[in-house]
Design a protein that fits this description.
The complex is a heterodimer.
Chain A: H1 2-26, H2 33-58, H3 66-82, H4 87-110, H5 116-135, E1 140-141, H6 145-152, E2 154-155, E3 158-159, H7 160-178, H8 180-190, H9 192-197, H10 202-228, E4 230-231, H11 239-249, H12 261-280, H13 285-314
Antiparallel strand pairs in A: 1-4, 2-3
Helix pairs in contact in A: 1-12, 2-7, 2-10, 2-11, 2-12, 3-4, 3-5, 3-10, 4-5, 4-10, 6-10, 7-8, 8-10, 11-12, 11-13, 12-13
Chain B: H1 2-18, H2 34-46, E1 57-64, H3 68-84, E2 87-93, H4 99-112, E3 116-119, H5 128-136, E4 140-144, H6 149-155, E5 160-162, H7 167-183, E6 188-194, H8 200-214, E7 219-226, H9 231-244, E8 248-253, H10 256-268, E9 276-280, H11 284-291, E10 297-300, H12 303-318, E11 332-335
Parallel strand pairs in B: 1-2, 1-3, 3-4, 4-5, 6-7, 6-8, 8-9, 9-10
Antiparallel strand pairs in B: 10-11
Helix pairs in contact in B: 2-12, 3-12, 4-5, 7-8, 9-10
The chains are: A mainly alpha, B alpha/beta.
């Protein structure tokens, strides 16, 4: 099983390198450190949000509310900072708010037994509406310098936003690979009935997964809010679909039971690199979406062919 | 490409020659279309611009190309670039609310390096980090005044900010026309449909429309609703308005896409012709609707001319010239009486 996933990631890495090489040949402006950090910062939001989404999809769930969670938790942290409580309190309460929103999703899914699609579609509307109501659709801007640094600052040559993304990926990797919770996530996604019989606390695992998805959405909200120096109710519109695309491209199957954090990282980087490179070589925006959409479908098709081949071989 | 332009020119001349003289336009102006007039007046505010050094590269970041308005502006940029012998790259975000994606695009273009970049920001703040990077690289930036200049200065950016469009005046012009038409029939209830709440041009057009209606005592504003610049939302909002206010006589919309959707909703409610609808932007479909007598009016400034003005001022600024503060494009109101003079509008 692990070897299977590794193979998938190798293909993605190869594709990422090929894409990078192609753009480097097409334009002298692509392969510069400045532009490389652009790609990292621009992908960081997708990497962070996609990491949480990976866990959700691993339990055969879905979280359509992360864009709204991103917006509302961003607004919470901005409002707290504007009230003069400081940067740490702002980020802490923002992430807490994201976690609570995630927990609400988990509660609806695990306790009330509403399908993940329905419950998160509903809360997406609720959170987005709360964000609009709370701000009266006005952006909150003019945030403290220390906070803005997360979006625009650097540690040495590395952008802070990218470092945050790498940290999230690292933590998630450890959780998935080496903790009981990680094993339980895969078990629940593979066969919830069987996992329950084996003594896996299915409900608690589900709650935990949606909680983490809310937390990563809020962390992504930190990057977006800090970068734009603005918290607004329309932030993160469509974020959930991009995150799902990154996860699925990374080889985590929609049917659950597997979680490839590094695959999601590569998927997000491929989407980010395509967006960046296509702008640099001046491809019109219509065609950019066309290319990204086609690459996505091709990646999923390649993944399915690989799975079928492996299955045929095993039989 | 060239043949197409010649055909366009011939078409334009024929249209100009065939135009009859409707009310409000004097015979002396009859052969100059409103587009040419608005263009010439707008250019006069800046004055002559000379050709830049060879190899001058201009970038442009628009809001989206999923709307004919921005496509027209792109054409304006490209036409001006050809006229001045420079190259231009025009990029845009996938949607009108993709604030982060638009910043990504600006930063990518700054990494690529240009002599000047024209910037049309989605919100007052979303592009500021990119403007800072452009400043650090010494790229001349011409931006719409929608940018929060105070925040930009604090962050270390210093774009040349142009008013370009007086959105408030546009909303007021359209609403005042609807109010004037309604007043002749005894006035009545009116509503305003605004765009995306929080977007400055949406707010300015809404406030302008409020002022335009308020100036006429016989009309009363019964509702102000957002429809996010979205066709479907505007349709639903209008259907709701007609339910809640059966006597509604007029709707001023913050753009044409929403106004056209409002007309559809009015038709399907069986109230065709009973509600005057005004839009802004004068997109092609709105032009047809005005000619058919369905849409009461649309307020037009030419996005094509904006593309040209920004190109001209970017060139002038890169050569060290000061750009006048009042540089803007002149807006006009198109209605059934003067729509014939708008055949070449773009």
């Amino acid at each position: 099983m692990t070897r299977l996933i590794r193979f998938q990631r190798l293909g993605l890495l190869l594709f990422l390198i090929l894409t990078g090489t192609f753009f480097s040949l097409m334009s002298p402006y692509f392969a510069t450190w400045e532009n490389f950090t652009n790609i990292l910062v621009q992908s960081s939001v997708l990497i962070i949000a996609g990491t949480g989404m990976t866990l959700v999809i691993a339990v055969a769930g879905i979280d359509l509310s992360i864009g709204a969670v991103l917006a509302l938790s961003g607004i919470v942290m901005a409002a707290v900072m504007k009230a003069g409580w400081g940067v740490c309190a702002g980020m802490g309460l923002g992430v807490l708010a994201g976690g609570l929103m995630g927990l609400l999703n988990g509660w609806g899914n695990a306790r009330l037994r509403i399908s993940a699609f329905i419950v998160t579609l509903g809360t997406a509307g609720v959170f987005r509406a709360l964000a609009l109501i709370f701000t009266d659709a006005q952006p909150i801007y003019g945030l403290p310098m220390g906070f803005r640094l997360i979006g625009t600052g650097r540690l040495g040559v590395w952008p802070l936003a990218a470092l945050l993304a790498f940290a999230v990926v690292g933590v998630a990797y450890v959780i998935v690979a080496w903790t009981r919770f990680g094993a339980n996530v895969r078990a629940v996604g593979d066969n919830p009935e069987g996992a329950f019989r084996m003594g896996v606390p299915v409900r608690r695992v589900l709650m935990g997964v949606y909680l983490l998805s809310g937390v990563t959405a809020a962390l992504a909200g930190i990057v977006v809010t800090a970068r734009l120096n603005t918290a607004e109710a329309i932030a993160g519109l469509g974020m959930e679909l991009e995150a799902i695309a990154a996860v699925v491209m990374g080889g985590t199957s929609f049917s659950g039971g597997e979680a490839s954090i590094s695959g999601t990282l590569l998927g997000a980087l491929i989407i980010g690199t395509l967006g960046n490179g296509l702008t640099i070589v001046n491809v019109p925006s219509y065609y950019q979406q066309l290319v990204i959409g086609m690459v996505f479908i091709l990646a999923v098709m390649a993944d399915r062919m690989r799975r079928q081949a492996v299955k045929a071989f095993q039989n | 490409m060239k043949a197409k332009r010649v055909m366009k020119l011939i078409g334009g001349l024929l249209a100009a020659a065939a135009v009859s003289v409707p009310g409000g336009i004097t015979a002396a102006h009859a052969r100059t279309t409103l587009f040419e007039q608005s263009r010439a007046e707008s250019f006069a505010l800046l004055g002559e611009v000379s050709k830049p050094k060879p190899g001058f590269r201009l970038g442009a970041v628009l809001i989206t190309l999923a709307n004919p308005y921005w496509v027209s502006m792109k054409n304006g940029y490209e036409h001006a670039a050809e006229e001045f012998g420079i190259t231009v790259d025009v990029q845009a975000a996938p949607q009108e609310n993709s604030t982060t994606a638009q910043l990504d695009i600006l930063e990518n273009m700054v990494a690529k390096g240009y002599d000047a970049i024209g910037v049309h920001t989605i919100t007052a703040h979303n592009l500021i980090p990119g403007l800072v990077k452009a400043r650090q690289k010494g790229i001349v930036v011409v931006a719409s005044k929608r940018v929060d200049l105070k925040a930009a200065k604090e962050a270390g950016a210093d774009p040349i900010a142009l008013g370009l469009v007086d959105y408030y005046a546009q909303g007021k012009l359209g609403a005042a026309y609807i109010a004037h038409e309604l007043a002749r029939k005894g006035g009545g209830e009116v509503a305003i449909i605004e765009g995306l709440p929080g977007a400055p041009q949406s707010g300015a057009r809404r406030d302008g429309a409020r002022a335009g209606f308020a100036a006429e005592p016989s009309v009363q504003i019964v509702s102000v609703q957002p429809a996010d610049w979205d066709r479907k939302k505007a349709y639903d909002v209008t259907a709701g308005l007609l339910q809640a206010h059966p006597d509604l006589k007029g709707i001023m919309c913050a753009n044409d896409v929403m106004a056209l959707a409002a007309l559809e909703a009015i038709d399907s409610a069986g109230k065709r012709g009973q509600v005057l609808v005004g839009g802004i932007d004068l997109i092609g479909q709105a032009k047809e609707a005005i000619a058919q007598g369905r849409l009461a009016c649309s307020v037009a400034f030419s996005p094509y001319v904006i593309g040209e003005i920004v190109t001209r001022s970017a060139i002038a600024a890169a050569m060290g010239r000061k750009i006048p503060d009042n540089l803007r494009v002149i807006s006009v109101l198109a209605n059934k009486d003067n729509i014939g003079l708008m055949d070449d509008w773009k």
